[in-house]
Amino acid sequence: MSQNTESLKLPEEAAIPRQNGLYMACGASALLLLVLLLTIGWRQAVLFLVGLAAGVILYHAAFGFTAAWREIVTTGHGAGLRAQMVMLGITVLVFTPLIAMGEIGGIGLRGSVAPLSIGVIIGAFMFGIGMQLGGGCASGTLFTAGGGNMRMVVTLLAFIAGSVLGSYHWALWQEAPAMQPLALSQSFGAVGGIVISLLIFIGIWLAAKAYEKHRLGSVANDRDVELPYRFLRGPWPLLAGALALAGVNIATLLLAGRPWGVTSAFALWGAKFIQGLGVDVSQWAYWARPGSAEALEASIFSDVTSVMNIGIILGALVAASLAHKYAPSFRIPWRSLLAAVVGGLMLGYGARIAYGCNIGAYFGGISSTSLHGWLWFVAAFVGSSLGTRLRPWFRLQ
């Protein structure tokens, strides 16, 4: 999910869509904020603002998982992976005591803890391949699509379709071999969970640094950018993105009672769409679960993940417009288009059977000290490495 941070010299006519993009994003954001305040409540409105901030952060920091993992494999640069470890470390330090409290301000707090299953391994492996072919992870697909990348709109649509298929097969994957959910903080206490997690983060941080130095002879603390760092127009340093996204996840936990997630909304959007076409998805085991049936019947504005995802798209549109980079192009080479479709389908299907994506399973899971998050990370990284090697066939840079 890399983002070109070099100065783009666009023709004069591109200024019109950039300006219109900013007006459109601000107008839509203000309208949705008002609707949420009047119909749902202040908490949902604030969560929308958190999503809006996440979109700006993701775009300006170009903070992602796809490009960071690909850089390790192709060039040896590990700044992105090291920034992820900083992000995880900060979030674990805050998450663990909060989740141990169980409640704050009348809101019950729970972590993202899931079984260690074959579904996690296979789903995360598929997701890793898909993120390299599709061009982004879950959050990356949202912010790049919102920033005007039409290829990523295709990936997003395929992502939704794959999510629907994954939810249709969800019951089958629940029968696959699995171990019970296990969190370090449950086995070793809050302090033990934090200490073990931090030791793993430090180990990966040091390993990435040593690998980069061995391969390149030196270590870069950030990616190379030609433009100076700027707050409103970007780019931002990777470390700033890491700190800000940790804040997004912590805010989500405090407001929603659980960690940040992305892909469950894609399954919901797809289910509502095909339900409108006459397909009775309520009979699927995935939608028969407690809470899921209610979400299917309610407005998407009642769904925390949906509201935050819409915020990410609009926030990225605002950021792209401020950076003078909002200039959608509809010219997509056929191989790149094919990769977007295949990658998106793998992303959606993989996320559903693996209990989440790079945000819900990796970021949220590891921040909750859940071992399924680490299992997801290993399987997805292997899949990402394979996906990186498949990119040349699709003529992806």
SS content category: mainly alpha
**Could you give the distance between the termini?**
11 Å
Gross morphology is: globular
Q: What are the secondary-structure elements, in order, as H or E? A: HHHHEEEHHHHEHHHHHHHH
Number of domains: 1
How many strand units? 4
Mean of pLDDT: 91
- The helix count comes to 16
Helix residue percentage: 55-70%
Low-confidence runs (pLDDT<50, min 5 residues)? 1-16
Biggest sheet architecture: 2 strands, antiparallel
**Percentage of residues in strands:** under 5%
Strand order across the biggest sheet? 1-2
User: What is the radius of gyration?
Assistant: 20 Å
Describe what you observe in this structure.
Helix content is 67%, strand content 2%. The chain has a two-stranded antiparallel ribbon. A two-stranded antiparallel ribbon has the order 3-4. The protein is globular and about 60 Å long. It is built from 16 helices and four strands. The protein has one domain. The N and C termini lie close together (11 Å). With 397 residues, the chain is an all-alpha fold.
